[in-house]
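User: I've been going back and forth on whether these two constructs are worth ordering. Before I decide, could you fold them both?

Assistant: Sure. I'll take them in the order you sent them. The first construct and its structure tokens:
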Amino acid sequence: LFLIIASIIIVWAQKTGRDLRKISEVKAEHFCRGPYCYTRIPTQWGLFLLMLGFGIIANAFFVILFTIISFFAVKFLFMKKHDKILIEKYGDAYVEYKKLVKF
């Protein structure tokens, strides 16, 4: 179940993310499409669920443990840099979007 849901989330996020490149003047509403209305990192969630599902199927405790550790490391260490890059690129529109979608 995790593998199926994760695959759907990843494909949905990637397809929705491509649509943003076609817009010339980006506003906060443009970010809130598809899975991006619920979370700022849907691809990350999809990859997390994919690895978690694999760890459960393989009955591999260390895969599950390191998947959870790496998810939190990315979420709390690397997302600040990711947000900084997007703020530089999109400005106030991304800041507004960041206020709307906390997760």
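The second construct, handled the same way:
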Amino acid sequence: LFNTHFTKNEVKSALDASKADRKMLLAYDLALIANGAFLLPTHNGVISSAHSQEDVEKLFEETEKFAKQARFRLT
């Protein structure tokens, strides 16, 4: 299980996480879906033994693409 938070600040608590950009998270999740890597929008991410190495690499590749495109928009 993992969570993704779009923020310039370190996330150390639920309060920190609540201050992250939720619109950016939704945009990220929708970009993943549109490009073949499904995460349930705005929920925990999950990687399991059912996922192949290619599945994980696809998630990383699409995450990197999104981060490069969205980097300037972070608050």
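Notes on the second construct follow. The helical segments are 14-18, 22-34, 53-70. The mean pLDDT is 90.
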